[in-house]
Each structure stands twice: as C-alpha cells, then as structure tokens.
UniProtKB/TrEMBL annotation:
Protein name, per record: MmcQ/YjbR family DNA-binding protein
SUPFAM superfamilies xrefs: YjbR-like (SSF142906)
GO MF term set: DNA binding
Keywords, in A-Z order: DNA-binding
Origin: domain of life: Bacteria
Pfam families, sorted: YjbR
InterPro entries: YjbR-like_sf, YjbR/MT2646/Rv2570-like
Amino acid sequence: MAHERMYDEDDPLLLRLRELALALPEATEKEAWGRPTFRCGKIFALYGGGVKVRPGEHEPHDRAVLFKAEPGETAALDEDPRFFLPAYYGPFGWRGLDLDTPDVDWDEVRELLDASFRLVATRRAVKELDAR
C-alpha cells in the first residue's frame, strides 16, 4: 500500500536540501513512506519525520532533515537541543534537525549530509567526493 505524500514539492527548504543532497556523487532521490529520501545505494538522508511521544502518537517534524550520524558524534548531538531522536531511525544512529528555524546553518547541514553519505556510499562515490 502506497503512503500518502507528506510534503510539498515546492517547499523551499526541501528544494535547498535537495540541491545539497543531489550534489553528492551518485546521489539519487526516491519517495518512500510518503517522504523524499536521498540515497547512494542506501538512504543517507530523509526530508521529514517525527518523534514518538507515546505508543501510537508522534510529534511531527515535517520540515526536518534526518541523517545517519557518525557513531562518535551521537552523544554530542543528543546534548544539542536543535537535534532530535527520530522515531524508527533513532535507535540505528540517525538524528534529525528541523530546517524551518531562522538560524539554520546550511553549511552545517551540508556537513551532516556529507558525513551521513560517507557512512553508506560506495567506495567509488566517496573517492569521487574526495577528489572534488
């Protein structure tokens, strides 16, 4: 069963995130679970998610980037109030960052995408990224 689309294709935050994510070597976009996912073989980022509040109840973060955090960085991210533990993905090392705040640092978003990408991308794609 297909999921209902949970984003606006013309959302300027999605457009900015898409530009950054698809600039990475061999990166592609595919809608899954009603949300844009960015992949290099495996998923390295998603647009939108939520936090599980209690069974069956989620707090939406529809304009956030979800990313796979470097294992040594998760504790620091968990101390930073800007980041959240996304439902379903959090136990696997993923974190989220809301993009709809006035102080979003897009250079930081680029760095988070880069790190997440490197955790899942092929050696060939990482080598191409390093050569840039």
